[in-house]
Amino acid sequence: MSKDPRHLPAGKLFLLPIPSRPWSHLGVDFVTDLPTSRDHTCIFVVVDRFSKSCRLLPLKGPPTALETAELLFNHVFRYFGIPKDIVSDRGPQFVSRVWRAFLTRLGVAVSLSSGYHLQTNGQTERKIQEISRYLRTFCHSHQNSWSQYLGWAEYAQNSLRQPSTGLTPFQCILGYQPLLFPWSAEPSDVPAVDHWFRESERVWDSAHHQLQRALHRCRRTADLRRSDTPAFQPGQKVWLSTRDIRLRLPCRKLSPRFIGPFSILKQINPVTYKLQLPPGYRIHPTFHVSLLKPHYPSVSPSTERGDRAAEPPLPLLLDVGGEGARLPTRHTLAPPKKSGPAMGPGEELGT
After folding, report:
1. Model-level pTM?
2. Tell me: the pLDDT tens digits for 28-41?
3. Which three-class secondary structure string do you get for the chain?
């Protein structure tokens, strides 16, 4: 319980499935706590995992689950079709019954990230970092004007050449790259429809091939800094890392590095497990394998005599008003620092 782990994080990289066409696999998240700009305080971010294209929707505040579903339908589904899978964190909108029922009726798989493992939705997290950097560059001195730059932020992101595909999102979806300035050349004759489809399919096939190469490179690089994935069985006891858990103890430096042991209920996927946590622990029971450590029963004189060894009581978690039941899911666009004197349907994912 008290030892710091000295080995590489466990669990080789578990890749999400590679999409075969644009807008079939999406990632969604929110950027919140922004300064008020034209009555907007947050951004709904939708990312296409195939083309890396994004939609940035300014909102007056965090929406409900039904409002989130309506936003997706009105701004994504009706333009690009109904997707196969949507990856999200465990925000209140995405764990509600309304969200799951809405997508289930449309035949869309709901994929939630595992506990304290934001890398599951890494493409969306990375896109949010790029959008935040763009807005910070143009709005650091006039922070209440970010909403007027949001459209150009989306246009710029969709015009950037992606290293994973070798194409811009516009090229991957439309088959061509729109110019940032008015087109001065004379338009050509109307091309044949079959030529347009062949060209689009060629672009998508090229993007899919580049995505495969990029994922293999990503896996090789990530696995260099990770150890082999341990194989846990249902019923086996494991320790749970306190790296992302706040305990009701006065000093974190003297607090245990692991709590438990807890029994494994089932294996969600090769790198994610569901634990049997006490009822008083208001955190989601699904965790990435890098946060787990096998438990080996200690041998003491009492156990040698046949008596049952007393297990230490479990520490209390810090009461955070129920927010511990899900991940810290909101991204805040912090203002720049001033210089001066001296994170199948219904299954959790884990990458």
Report:
1. 0.56
2. 989 888 889 989 99
3. CCCCCCCCCECCCCCCCCCCCCCCEEEEEEEECCCCECCECEEEEEEECCCCCEEEEEECCCCCHHHHHHHHHHHHHHHHCCCCEEEECCCCCCCCHHHHHHHHHCCCEEEEECECCHHHHHHHHHHHHHHHHHHHHHHCCCHHHHHHHHHHHHHHHCCCCCCCCCCCHHHHHHCCCCCCCCCCCCCCCCCCHHHHHHHHHHHHHHHHHHHHHHHHHHHHHHHCCCECCCCCCCCCEEEEECCCCCECCCCCCCCCCEEEEEEEEEEEECCEEEEECCCCCCCCCEEEHHHEEECCCCCCHHHHCCCCCCCCCCCCECCCCCHHHCCCCCEECCCCCCCCCCCCCCCEECC
